[in-house]
Amino acid sequence: MQEIIDKLENTGKLIESQGAKIIDLEDKGMPPCMICKSNGSSIYATRDLAAILYRTRTYDFDKCLYVVAYEQNLHFKQIFEVAKLLDIDEKYINGLEHVSYGMVHLKSGKMSTREGNVIKVADLLNEAIHRASKILEEKNPNIENKEEIAKRVGIGAIIFNDLANSRIKDEIFDWDQILNFQGETGPYMQYIYVRTKSVLENADFEPDIKNIEIDKLLDEEGIEVLKNIYEFEDILKSVTEKNEPYLLSRYLIELAKNYSAFYNKNKILTEDKKTSNARLCLTYMTNIVLKNGAKILGIEMPEKM
User: Fold this and answer.
1) Exposed, middle or buried: residue 276 (CB in 10 Å: 0-12, 13-18, 19+)?
2) pTM of the model
3) Are 106 and 174 in contact (CB under 8 A)?
4) What is the rounded distance in angstroms from the CA atom of residue 22 to the CA atom of residue 4?
C-alpha cells in the first residue's frame, strides 16, 4: 500500500484535503477518491489499488472481474480511474471490470446485519435440502438415495433462483417459489432432465445421430426444441460477453418447457423405428444440453426425482 501512495505522489495528483490524501476526479464527473485518512491509515481504495498492482504482476490476465453488489458502483469507477495513474500496462487497465448485481430481500424487507434479520449461507443450504427432502418424500415415498437427490434439488434450486434474472435486479427470497416443481424454477428443469433420462434408459437407447431423419421432427413442438438446441453455443457466447448467467438460466427453462410440450404431443417410442430414432435423438440432445448447461451454472442433476 505504501508503494501505491508513493506512485500516486510521484504523479503530482495526490493532494491533501482536510488532512486526508485524495485524488481529485472532478474532471471525470466523480467525487474525489480518498487514498489515506487524516490519521495516515489506509482505506478500501488503497487496498484495492494495491491488489490491482499485485494481480498485474502475478497474473497475465485478460479480464479481472469484480463480482460485487451495485452499491459499490462508484467505488469501482473511482478505483479503475485512479489505477490509470499507476503506470500499469493498458491491457490490464482495460481488463478491469465491475460485474455488479442486485440485492436479495426477504418478503419482510431488506436484510440487515445490525437488525439481525440475515440468513447465513450454510443455514440457507441446509434448509433448502431439508425442504426438498420433504417434498420428494411426499411425491415419491419410495425414492432411493433421497438424501443425495434432496441435496442436488435443494442446492440447485437456490443457485437457479439466484441466477434466473438479470444480475442487476433485486430479488425477493420466497421458499414457495424457489422449490416449486412447476414453473420456471431449478427443480422444474431438473425434473424434465430426469424425464429425458428415464425415456433413454427405458428405450436402452444408443444415439444414432448420423442416420436421423429430420423430417420426423418437423412438427411445431419438435422445431422449437431443435431451434433451442441450435442456439446453445450462441447463448454461451452471450453469457460470457455480457457476464449475464441469467441468459443461460432462461434458455434452459425454455428448452425444458419446449421439450415437455414435444413429449406430451408425441409418443417417443413408436412402431416406426425411424420415427422412434429421431425422437430419441432429440431427447438425447435435450438431455445433454440440459445437463451441460446446468453444470455451467454450478447445478448438479439428480438421477431420479
Assistant:
1) middle
2) 0.83
3) no
4) 12
